[in-house]
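RECORD TYPE: inverse folding
INPUT: structure tokens
STRUCTURE:
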């Protein structure tokens, strides 16, 4: 057991910091390029003018704000991981300000009555706020489905108001019918795309936070072994 524990601690100490902030900037560069490409092809104008409900614009704004938040969260997690590694390599140096890992290790040294309390606090700091972001991600998908319901409702009402069919007015009637169908398809598509790309960012944040907890726990085992 001691051999496996020592191997686990040694393998954990050799882990390199994943470039989560660089990955986010790379993704942002791809988003900017894609937005520019869609703009010159007139896709943004089509999206905004084809949806009179404004749901498409709401989803785009939500996605943009959530993506910026993911960037700030990536920066904070990266800073905390750098702080953790610095304290592991320089155990006698003063800790950086607001270090989650240091506060977790100090809580372990104090031997609290509830042995799981330090880990609960650390998990809340690394993952707690992510639950709200995941709710926003699901909200994007639900707004897309709401737009789908509204679009098909408009389509159904337009069909219900048709009293007779005149071949001379067929083109105008088809244009009116496809407006509701366009709302349904566009809002669903935008909601799905936003849900996929924001989910990708949040999954990466969760994975980085998981690795942070693992490294903090491994060093915490070393502290408990010394005590």
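DESIGNED SEQUENCE:
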């Amino acid at each position: 057991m001691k051999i496996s524990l020592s191997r686990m601690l040694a393998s954990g100490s050799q882990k390199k910091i994943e470039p989560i902030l660089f990955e986010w900037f790379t993704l942002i560069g791809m988003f900017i390029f894609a937005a520019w490409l869609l703009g010159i092809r007139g896709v943004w104008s089509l999206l905004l003018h084809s949806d009179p409900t404004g749901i498409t614009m709401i989803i785009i704004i939500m996605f943009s704000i959530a993506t910026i938040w993911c960037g700030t969260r990536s920066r904070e997690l990266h800073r905390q991981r750098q702080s953790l590694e610095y304290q592991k390599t320089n155990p006698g140096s003063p800790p950086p300000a607001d270090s989650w890992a240091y506060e977790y290790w100090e809580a372990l040294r104090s031997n609290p009555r509830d042995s799981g309390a330090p880990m609960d606090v650390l998990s809340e700091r690394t993952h707690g706020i992510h639950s709200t972001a995941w709710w926003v991600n699901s909200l994007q998908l639900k707004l897309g489905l709401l737009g789908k319901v509204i679009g098909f409702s408009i389509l159904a009402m337009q069909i219900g108001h048709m009293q007779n069919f005149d071949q001379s007015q067929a083109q105008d009637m088809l244009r009116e019918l496809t407006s509701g169908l366009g709302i349904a398809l566009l809002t669903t598509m935008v909601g799905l795309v936003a849900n996929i790309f924001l989910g990708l960012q949040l999954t990466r944040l969760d994975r980085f936070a998981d690795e942070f907890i693992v490294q903090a726990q491994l060093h915490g085992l070393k502290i408990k072994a010394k005590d």
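NOTES: The chain has a mean pLDDT of 82.
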